[in-house]
Amino acid sequence: MDRSSPERSTSLKGCAWNTTWTSKEIAAYLFSEFQLWHSPLAAKIPRSQGRYLREQLLPQVDDQLIRLIGEVDDRHKAEFLANARALLFLIDWPEPFGLVMIEAMACGTPVIAFRRGSVLD
After folding, report:
1. Paired strand residues for 44
2. Residue pLDDT, tens place only, 8-53
3. Is 17 a member of any domain?
């Protein structure tokens, strides 16, 4: 749902239990444990992040567990979030204000996130 870049990660590298799960592995785990169908990856990808897109994001997209759907516009955002089982907020920097988390919670969608920056608020 947010701008995608290296500091706004799609993996669990560096988290408390020192794992290196990718988005695809997270989706597979959530599917096996909670019978989630798939994980749409909604992200605004600036042109300047083309290399990151090719090297980090696209290898995780398999159109079964992970589907890259691109940016969700403001008109469709509330419906998208309200229909989600959860929002994975895998950020790898001290986010000063997590608007995407607030939007998800306002729609009644739980947020799964690292304990970084504004996440604790």
Report:
1. 3
2. 555 444 333 334 566 667 767 766 766 555 678 888 888 898 898 8
3. no
